[in-house]
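Dear H.,

Thanks for agreeing to be a second pair of eyes. The structure we're designing against is below in token form, covering all 148 positions.
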């Protein structure tokens, strides 16, 4: 089973989709963007959100899906990212999703799918996502925002 994630700039999961492992990423792009749980407040919606994606999302179909969901697409092929590393102001963002996947793998029950139904597996993924988000909610002082 494949896990497709939508994460924020800190790696906190905002949306999860579970599909067969043999499905291409572009075919699930719309479903992942639709699965977004946390949305901006109405006052902040006037500002368009950016969506950074890797080379798997290059093409007109992916671009149309991203723009259709109200995002500004930033899709970089691998060659461009390597060239841009020479620029000191540029920091690659591809690793953020990989880190998020590794945080999910810390939950032993999710590493290998044992659940018989997709609904149970998705519920466990949502529980893990809530735990990850809670752990990442820190203020600039380093204290947990929720518990002070």
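And this is the sequence the design step returned. I haven't edited it by hand at all.
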């Amino acid at each position: 089973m494949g896990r497709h994630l939508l994460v924020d700039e800190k790696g906190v999961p905002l949306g999860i989709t579970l599909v067969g492992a043999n499905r291409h990423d572009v075919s699930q792009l719309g479903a992942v963007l639709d699965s977004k749980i946390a949305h901006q407040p109405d006052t902040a919606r006037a500002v368009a959100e950016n969506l950074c994606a890797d080379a798997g999302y290059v093409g007109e179909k992916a671009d149309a899906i991203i723009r259709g969901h109200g995002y500004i697409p930033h899709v970089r092929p691998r060659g461009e990212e390597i060239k841009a590393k020479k620029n000191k102001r540029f920091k690659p963002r591809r690793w953020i999703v990989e880190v998020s996947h590794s945080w999910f793998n810390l939950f032993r029950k999710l590493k290998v799918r044992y659940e018989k139904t997709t609904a149970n597996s998705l519920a466990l993924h949502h529980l893990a996502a809530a735990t990850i988000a809670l752990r990442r909610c820190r203020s600039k002082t380093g204290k947990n925002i929720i518990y002070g």
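Two observations from my side: Helices lie at 29-34, 60-68, 78-84, 94-105, 108-111, 118-136. The chain has a mean pLDDT of 77.

Warmly,
E.
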